[in-house]
Design brief:
16% helix; 5-stranded mixed β-sheet
């Protein structure tokens, strides 16, 4: 696969999460998932977090602002659904769920078990859904054909 530069190097992945309050978002992602503040950027409107396989950027965006000029819907921080979400793989699910809830996450149902592992559906304090996963055996490779 060629990237935008035209070479065959892997495409870089950057994760951006819109949040209303940058300080409380930094605290949440540090306490809930063990990420660490690496640096603040752009007049303190962006925070880069490290500790995951890729950098996670928190973007301060006001509630009610437009996410795109082509959309009439405004940004909201109540719980919302999106087809793209983040999954965080953890070594032990119950302590990870407890840690996330203590930091301000909402658990959205009981832990589910699958052939590949276990999953907890969660949401952060800004309405963004995410999952905590615990692999068993080979994870998704267990069920891959």
């Amino acid at each position: 696969m060629s990237n935008a530069a035209g070479n065959d190097a892997a495409v870089a992945l950057v994760v951006n999460i819109d949040v209303e309050d940058l300080g409380s978002a930094i605290r949440f992602y540090e306490e809930a998932l063990g990420l660490r503040l690496k640096r603040r950027l752009f007049d303190d409107t962006v925070a880069e977090l490290s500790g995951a396989a890729t950098s996670v950027f928190l973007l301060k965006k006001a509630a009610g602002s437009l996410p795109s000029r082509s959309l009439a819907e405004v940004r909201s921080y109540r719980r919302h659904w999106t087809p793209v979400h983040l999954d965080f793989v953890v070594a032990a699910l119950e302590p990870a769920v407890e840690r996330a809830v203590q930091a301000g996450a909402k658990s959205e149902g009981p832990i589910q078990s699958f052939e590949w592992g276990r999953q907890a559906l969660m949401s952060d304090p800004f309405g963004n859904g995410f999952c905590l996963l615990q692999w068993t055996g080979g994870g998704y490779d267990t069920v891959a054909s």
